[in-house]
Amino acid sequence: MSFQEFGLSEAIVHGVQCLGYVDPTPIQLQAIPTVLNGKDLVAAAQTGTGKTAAFALPILSRLGTHEKTPRALVLEPTRELAAQVHDAFKDYARYTNLRVTSLFGGVGYGGQETDLARGVDIVVATPGRLLDHLEKGTLKLSSVQYLVLDEVDRMLDMGFIPDVRRIVGACPSSDQGRQSLLFTATMPPEIERLASFVLKEPEKIEIGARRSPAETVSHYFYPVSVMQKHELLQALLEKTEYHSVIVFSRTKAGADLIAARLEESGHSVAVLHSDRSQGERTEALAGFKNGTFEVLVATDLAARGIDIQGVSHVINFDVPLHAEDYVHRIGRTGRAESSGDAFTLITAEELKEVESIERFIGQKVERQKLDDFPYRYTSLFSTTPLASAKPRKKIGVRRKR
């Protein structure tokens, strides 16, 4: 099926075609007709499946032409996701007169208030900043016809569910004609309760195996002592052929330290975590996408939702505390049917988390030992069968310009 066969408006189809979209993804094939038919929807799908277009295209098509009050509201857990979804809406709506704005923290209120005063059709927002505008009286949700709760499992992790309930309560009810769409990678009991509160007789869609890493990603565990983690990270980067790399740290301080050490060794590095200003975060993502930076060091802020094409490798400097986050982290590579590699540095202190990950994904992850690396602490290797990882020539590595 083509996008034109869905019955989307001509302007939206034109926008999609200009972006080079050819074949709808599985979630688009299932979700777009449901949304066009006016039904509520709960969709379990991992990021990178094309879900933004799955809700944006039919909503834009149904909105038609510009009106002064917001009729579509999309909630996102982070500033980066809000900015990304805002840009997607603008791209899809390029041949319409519909207006979209984004509301998130880290930037001033002035530009956001100006947009709202001029009149917008679509608001993409994080919960905190949206509530600020509601309290200030600069935004009213009384005309909202389409409500999208995106990455709801991430909003649960970040403690946003009470805020989300307040926001839903400020919108027209389902009985007043509001159509609601909920997207999540997992469905724990608290999200099921939220879905029953927000949605009315929803259609249900599940795309892909939510516990399994993408088949396009090869992933390995590298046992090492805590004292040699930075050394091994440097050695992996020196002996691996890569295009661009995301290195995940468990903490913000750890991310800053990793970035500083990599910069000292000549790597071009960007840092992404919640203590960075919005300008710094935007610059980091843009520079990583355009090749200015070859390495992005990030906390789990970047693990979900951020869509960066062409990432060849993910390296987990720290094992994530939650097994689910492992799948999200390594899912930053191997996207859009490209292949990718994911390396995780594991220490004796992290074996509990390692075992949790393997139970969660239902498979044993191969342990590897980097050839020619001067391991000084070998107790972890005595009980762990290891495969030898031979160095590969570095070809086509992005360097600082």
Structural summary, described in words:
This protein has 401 residues and is α/β, with parallel strands linked by helices. It has 2 domains: 3-207, P-loop containing nucleotide triphosphate hydrolases (Rossmann fold), CATH 3.40.50; 217-389, P-loop containing nucleotide triphosphate hydrolases (Rossmann fold, 3-Layer(aba) Sandwich), CATH 3.40.50. It is built from 14 helices and 15 strands. The chain has helices at 10-18, 26-36, 51-63, 79-92, 110-118, 127-136, 152-157, 161-170, 189-198, 229-238, 252-264, 278-290, 323-330, 351-361, and strands spanning 41-45, 72-75, 100-103, 122-125, 146-149, 179-184, 203-207, 217-223, 245-248, 269-272, 295-298, 313-316, 340-346, 368-370, 387-389. The chain has a 7-stranded parallel β-sheet with strand order 3-4-2-5-6-1-7, sandwiched between helices. A 6-stranded parallel β-sheet has the order 8-13-12-9-11-10. The chain has a two-stranded parallel sheet with strand order 14-15. Helix 3 packs across helix 4 (79-92) and helix 6 (127-136) packs across helix 8. The protein is globular. The model is unreliable at 390-401 (pLDDT under 50).
